[in-house]
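Retry 2 of 3 after timeout on previous attempt. Resubmitting structure tokens to design endpoint.
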């Protein structure tokens, strides 16, 4: 993880210390990045048994480091300014297949752009591909315009409800951020419900309505997150302790090859 100041290192290091003492396990937190202030410097000096600090790393070294770890951690500070942020390191963890522990937002809020009453016609990606292929095969003119959509619609608020259900959350308070006449941003359209008669005349019929498409997509995304370990299921290669020394040795070997 990073040593930058907007991460709350102290509680995490105290937890690591407690685990080491109570369970007698060899667990360490590995951090990299600049030392931005004296506070970070004091933390590094005070937790030498619990922390391995690697300093600034090249991007390629970050990949090598993460491949040697068992879990990625994002311990953000409790500040509203970071409530809706998602650090780059989260995507780095996911890309390398690491399970991820993120500090929960104790407010359990979901930001909805607009007043939630915007109407949209949603189509599943498989139906969109099928519609495109039908139009390509059956259109006789060099250029045609078709509306590609489902035959019904739902509100943005209903989409939020489906996503909340898909990820298994409850008691989530939705925070609406409307602008102008209730849209999500300047230039947004309040209602998008398309007629697809022209495409249907070619034989296209969507297999899912808007709600089914949103539900299926949310379910698929959750399944992919679980598969990548975000639900705490580490792959066999990830099991065991995090060997930062192995990562450092790998980085040294990489540099030796480049300098050869």
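Retry 2 succeeded. Sequence:
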């Amino acid at each position: 993880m990073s040593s930058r100041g907007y991460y709350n290192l102290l509680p995490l290091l105290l937890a690591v210390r407690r685990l080491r003492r109570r369970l007698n396990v060899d667990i360490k937190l590995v951090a990299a990045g600049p030392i931005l202030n004296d506070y970070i410097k004091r933390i590094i000096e005070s937790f030498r048994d619990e922390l391995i600090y690697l300093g600034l790393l090249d991007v390629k070294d970050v990949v090598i480091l993460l491949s040697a770890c068992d879990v990625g951690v994002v311990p953000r500070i409790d500040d509203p300014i970071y409530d809706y942020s998602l650090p780059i390191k989260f995507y780095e963890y996911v890309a390398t297949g690491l399970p991820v522990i993120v500090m929960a937002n104790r407010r359990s809020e979901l930001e909805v752009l607009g007043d939630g009453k915007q109407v949209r016609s949603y189509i599943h990606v498989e139906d969109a591909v099928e519609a495109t292929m039908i139009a390509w095969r059956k259109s006789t003119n060099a250029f045609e315009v078709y509306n590609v959509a489902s035959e019904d619609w739902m509100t943005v608020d209903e989409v939020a409800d489906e996503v909340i259900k898909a990820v298994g959350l409850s008691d989530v308070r939705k925070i609406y951020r409307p602008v102008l006449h209730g849209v999500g941003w300047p230039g947004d359209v309040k209602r998008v419900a398309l007629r697809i008669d022209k495409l249907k005349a070619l034989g296209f019929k969507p297999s899912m309505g808007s709600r089914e498409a949103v539900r299926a997509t949310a379910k698929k995304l959750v399944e992919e997150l679980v598969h990548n370990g975000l639900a705490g299921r580490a792959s066999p290669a990830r099991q065991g302790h995090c060997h930062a020394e192995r990562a450092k040795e790998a980085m040294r070997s990489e540099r030796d090859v480049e300098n050869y």
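Attempt log closed. The domain at 109-225 is CATH 3.90.25.10 (UDP-galactose 4-epimerase; domain 1).
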